[in-house]
Amino acid sequence: MDLILDQIRKIKALGILLYEDDIKDVPDLSRLHHWQYGLILAILGEFLENIYLLNKLVYGS
User: Fold this and answer.
1) How many CB atoms lie within 10 A of CB 2?
2) How far apart are CA 40 and CA 46, in angstroms?
3) What is the mean pLDDT of residues 35-51?
4) DSSP string over 18-54
5) How distant, in Å, are the alpha carbons of 13, 22, 43, 56 from that of 2?
């Protein structure tokens, strides 16, 4: 597998884990930002993965 794509997927997985971990617990005000960071990382990872795969499709490997 492609190393760059693997790293992008790790970023996305980390974001999902951060998001889901804080949502399971009842978030208090001091931890509320962790799920937001997780959501941002997951969305960023998804975006980067799509851009990378589109770039490979258009320009080849």
Assistant:
1) 12
2) 10
3) 88
4) HHHHHHHS---TTTHHHHHHHHHHHHHHHHHHHHHHH
5) 16, 31, 20, 11
Q: Residue 28: left (phi > 0), alpha (psi -120 to 50), or beta?
A: beta
- 18 contacts 35 by C-beta, under 8 angstroms: yes
Using alpha carbons, list the distances in angstroms from residue 13 to 29, 45, 60.
24, 8, 26
DSSP 14: H
Residue 58 has a pLDDT of: 94
Cα distance between the two ends of the chain: 12
Q: Answer whether 0.90 is exceeded by the pTM.
A: no
